[in-house]
């Protein structure tokens, strides 16, 4: 089958950074399902994994962790799907990715796609949805009760990005007052459109901006951009007994002592953890994707697709990586077959 892979980690401007290849078509066994790929989405993790480094692969490495497609074959132990089902999922970072005609994934981390969405619209959702959901409900401990959340606030740093676009919708729907950060008119507009009640500029002092809007602190913070840059400000505005979560690795150690007097907590969110470590609760990703699909079909959660390209091939993927590397993306970039 056709696929796109790499053996050398090169700048995306190099034609050899991503190349067209032909590999054997896999077959589903055990709890795996084989999916005919209809659309994929490109994420910052794709760019990070592909980024230049002094390393070579003996066999081509295939990237890609956002898929919408049709189940073509199921393993003998599969109980959640059957051939013909339309699915969406993010997969596992330690397995071959989805830059290919067909893709294998464990049934426990996939779900049936929203019926009201096209494959392209659905492909924009899985990775960012899992990240946002786990960050809010598993790491920050946000309640799903609107009554409990009444009067509580969350700051989402980089609200117009892929994860932020989902997190603002979920947090708003479940009753939190959502404060997003953005720095351009178009990102401010996007953030408000997707659920932010208020938007502040992440290039300016957080506390002074919040105080002008009547906030002295926030109950939750979800950091989706430069944990290092924003750490001191996050520690300053988090409420006593508040919670902070981040998805962005640091270059320097964090000073957790800044949170001690407030008894505030900090947690990392990495959506591949469950699949990577084969945790016993990894079916929770199937369940949350299934729940979000229902919210989408009810018109509560909207897809965050903002740009679409055609052709899952090396040339198109290099273009997509260039766009994601620009750090100017709003929402998600999707490629259809």
TrEMBL record:
<keyword id="KW-0007">Acetylation</keyword>
<keyword id="KW-0862">Zinc</keyword>
<dbReference type="InterPro" id="IPR011032">
    <property type="entry name" value="GroES-like_sf"/>
</dbReference>
<keyword id="KW-0963">Cytoplasm</keyword>
<dbReference type="InterPro" id="IPR014182">
    <property type="entry name" value="ADH_Zn_typ-1"/>
</dbReference>
<dbReference type="InterPro" id="IPR020843">
    <property type="entry name" value="ER"/>
</dbReference>
<keyword id="KW-0694">RNA-binding</keyword>
<protein>
    <recommendedName>
        <fullName>Zinc-type alcohol dehydrogenase-like protein</fullName>
    </recommendedName>
</protein>
<comment type="subunit">
    <text>Homotetramer.</text>
</comment>
<dbReference type="InterPro" id="IPR036291">
    <property type="entry name" value="NAD(P)-bd_dom_sf"/>
</dbReference>
<dbReference type="InterPro" id="IPR002364">
    <property type="entry name" value="Quin_OxRdtase/zeta-crystal_CS"/>
</dbReference>
<comment type="similarity">
    <text>Belongs to the zinc-containing alcohol dehydrogenase family. Quinone oxidoreductase subfamily.</text>
</comment>
<dbReference type="InterPro" id="IPR013149">
    <property type="entry name" value="ADH-like_C"/>
</dbReference>
<keyword id="KW-0560">Oxidoreductase</keyword>
<dbReference type="InterPro" id="IPR013154">
    <property type="entry name" value="ADH-like_N"/>
</dbReference>
<dbReference type="Pfam" id="PF08240">
    <property type="entry name" value="ADH_N"/>
</dbReference>
<keyword id="KW-0521">NADP</keyword>
<dbReference type="InterPro" id="IPR051603">
    <property type="entry name" value="Zinc-ADH_QOR/CCCR"/>
</dbReference>
<feature type="domain" description="Enoyl reductase (ER)">
    <location>
        <begin position="13"/>
        <end position="335"/>
    </location>
</feature>
<keyword id="KW-0479">Metal-binding</keyword>
<dbReference type="Pfam" id="PF00107">
    <property type="entry name" value="ADH_zinc_N"/>
</dbReference>
């Amino acid at each position: 089958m056709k696929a796109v892979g790499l053996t050398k980690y090169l700048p995306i401007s190099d034609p050899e950074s991503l190349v067209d290849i032909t590999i054997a078509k896999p077959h589903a066994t055990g709890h795996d399902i084989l999916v005919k790929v209809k659309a994929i989405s490109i994420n910052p993790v794709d760019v990070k994994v592909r980024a230049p480094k002094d390393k070579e692969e003996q066999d081509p490495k295939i990237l890609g962790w956002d898929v919408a497609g049709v189940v073509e074959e199921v393993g003998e132990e599969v109980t959640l799907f059957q051939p013909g089902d339309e699915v969406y999922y993010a997969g596992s970072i330690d397995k071959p990715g989805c830059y290919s005609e067909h893709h294998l994934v464990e049934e426990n981390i996939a779900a049936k796609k929203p019926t009201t969405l096209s494959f392209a619209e659905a492909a924009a959702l899985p990775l960012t949805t899992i990240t946002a959901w786990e960050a809010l409900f598993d790491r920050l401990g946000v309640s799903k009760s609107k009554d409990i959340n009444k009067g509580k606030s969350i700051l989402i740093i980089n609200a117009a990005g892929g994860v932020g676009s989902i997190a603002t919708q979920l947090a708003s729907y479940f009753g939190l007052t959502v404060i997003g950060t953005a720095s351009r008119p178009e990102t401010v507009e996007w953030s408000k459109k997707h659920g932010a009640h208020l938007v502040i500029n992440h290039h300016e002092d957080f506390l002074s901006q919040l105080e002008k809007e009547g906030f002295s602190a926030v109950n939750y913070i979800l950091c989706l951009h430069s944990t290092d840059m924003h750490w001191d400000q996050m520690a300053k505005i988090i409420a006593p007994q508040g919670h902070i979560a981040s998805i962005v690795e640091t270059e320097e150690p964090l000073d957790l002592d800044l949170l001690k007097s407030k008894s505030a907590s900090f947690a990392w969110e990495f959506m591949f953890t469950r699949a990577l470590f084969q945790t016993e609760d990894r079916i929770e990703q199937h369940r949350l994707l299934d729940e979000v699909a229902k919210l989408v079909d009810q018109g509560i959660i909207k897809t965050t697709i903002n740009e679409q390209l055609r052709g899952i091939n090396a040339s198109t993927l290099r273009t997509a990586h260039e766009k994601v590397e620009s750090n100017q993306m709003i929402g998600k970039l999707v490629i259809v077959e």
